[in-house]
Amino acid sequence: MKRQFDIIAGPPTKNLPFSSVVGFENLILVSGMVGRDPETGKIAVGDIAEQTRQTLSNIDHQLAKAGLSLKHVIKATVFITDMGMVQKMNQVYVSFFKSGLPARSCVQVVALPNPDALVEIEVMAHR
Q1: pLDDT of 100-126, one tens digit each?
Q2: Superfamily grouping for domain 19-126
Q3: What does DSSP assign to residue 32?
Q4: Are 59 and 33 a contacting pair, CB within 8 Å?
Q5: Is 76 among the catalytic positions?
Q6: Residue 82 near residue 51, CB atoms below 8 Å
Q7: What does the alpha-carbon distance between residue 77 and residue 110 come to, in Å, rounded to a whole number?
């Protein structure tokens, strides 16, 4: 069967079983990203605000591979390890979407794959 979507960016490391960015018709999907500093490979130092800032910067970088930016995002899903941190996360989150907030879900999870991560965000964008 022929693949129905385009792989725009493969996995962040070879041992991960997913693509970072895929496209289907006019949709671009970015897999869940955490606040990993691309220079050091480590989760951003600080609180949920710093991790959210780094996470959204990482997502913007992934969208750029498809010729898009955060202004093209139509849906985001936020996974957070403690809903008590959601207001701090929101303060940073809204600052990245100056042209309008996309639809969003936010759920608390028991843990994320990286034990230092407090937040993971995945997005869907439209070309």
Answers
A1: 999 999 999 999 999 999 999 999 999
A2: RutC-like (3.30.1330.40)
A3: E
A4: yes
A5: no
A6: no
A7: 16
Q: How far is CA 98 from the centre of its chain?
A: 17
Selection from 54, 109, 46 nearest residue 83 by Cα: 109
Can you say whether the dihedral through the CA atoms of 8, 96, 125, 83 is positive or negative?
A: positive
Q: How is the chain split into domains, by residue range?
A: 19-126
Model confidence, pTM: 0.92
Question: Helix, strand, coil: what percent of the chain each, to 5?
Answer: 25, 30, 45
Q: Among residues 9, 27, 86, 106, which one is catalytic? A: 106
pLDDT tens for each residue of 43-91: 998 899 999 999 999 999 999 999 999 999 999 999 999 999 999 999 9
